[in-house]
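User: If only I could read backbone structure tokens as easily as an amino acid sequence. Underneath my words sits a plain record pairing an amino acid chain with its backbone structure tokens. This is the protein in question:
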Amino acid sequence: MLEGTNSPIGIGRATAHQYARHGAKAIYICDFADSHLDVHKREIESLYPGVNVHTRQFDAGDEEEVKKLVDDVIETYGRLDIMFANAGIVGAPKLFTEVSGEEFMQTMDTNAKG
């Protein structure tokens, strides 16, 4: 299961390809944004036909959403061997003194807990 996989040139995409290339049976590619997830899915499935690729759009900082996904993986496949939490955000484009506590914690939820 990989989080932070939407970028067309990012670490998450590259990691998904490496897992598929090296024998993964199933890969869940996930991100807050889903504009490229379906493209990545088709690409991986065409290059590595034996891999089941699943896409999920959710916020990696949302503990309940992550738990639901892990539960789904375990229910579907009976186990979860690897989880690569690659999600990360920059946060509000403001001076540090202008960032509210809520904005700061949203960034921390994604970058530290996600």
User: Anything to note?
Assistant: The radius of gyration is 15 Å. The beta strands are 2-3, 26-31, 52-57, 84-85. The helical segments are 11-21, 37-47, 63-77, 101-113.
